[in-house]
Amino acid sequence: MGIFFILATIVQHNDPDWYLWGTVYIIPAIMSFIQAFGPSIAAHYVYQAFIRSCGFLYSLLVLIHGFYFLSNGGTFMASGSSVPLIDPSVGDIENRESLTILETEEGKEFLGSLIALIWIIISIYLTTTSTVGDSAISRRFKLLIFVFTISPLTLWFILYLLESNS
Predict the structure, then answer these.
(1) For residue range 1-25, what is the model confidence (pLDDT) as tens digits?
(2) How many CB atoms are located within 10 Å of the residue 81 CB?
(3) Which residue of 12, 49, 50, 151 pairs with 18 in a disulfide if CB–CB is 3.0 to 4.6 A?
């Protein structure tokens, strides 16, 4: 996930508020690398307090951004149909009443902050169970972490292919 968040930070270079979203994505990247390469740092109480406070702040960010997106007419699906989120044939964006989550910058930022929040929650769990040992982490949870780690990169690649083909 560290690589995903580094890539997410890099693509913020042309965003008008790059400093905000670059920071939102670089913090989970740093956390990922600390947990991977510095487990003794991750076990320290200062890091534990930092990661928990980040979890709280990212929760607020997701709630505020989700409310802002939905209050401005956004929706998680195309209006009046069951068109999936990543379908490029949704229609004319300017003439629709509501926009899907992947058609607006606010929707994409909401999803990015949600991915960061979920990863921080997983990180909190992993650093808490690291004191108990790997036996405390079940195989199902390891599979969930693997799927969640691969999903954003895969979705990003699919969206890139869909945009380049249209």
Answers:
(1) 888 889 888 888 888 888 888 898 9
(2) 10
(3) 12
Distance (Å, rounded) from C-alpha 66 to C-alpha 85?
16
Cα separation values, 94 from 22, 36, 90, 106, 142, Å: 29, 44, 11, 16, 43
Residue located via tokens 């990003």: 156
Count of alpha carbons within 13 Å of 93, Cβ hemisphere only? 10
d(CA 104, CA 110): 10
Query: Which residues, 6 or more positions from 41, have their beta carbon under 8 angstroms from its beta carbon?
Result: 34, 47
List beta partners, residue 99: 74
Query: What distances in angstroms separate CA 4 from CA 33, 49, 56, 98, 120, one per listed residue?
Result: 12, 24, 22, 29, 14
Q: Beta partners for 65?
A: none
- Identify the three-state secondary structure at position 79: coil
Secondary structure element (H or E) that encloses residue 163, with its range: helix 139-165
Return the domain boundaries, the chain: 2-165
Instruction: Report how far apart, in Å, the C-alpha atoms of 36 and of each of 33, 43, 123, 133, 143 are.
Output: 5, 12, 11, 15, 17
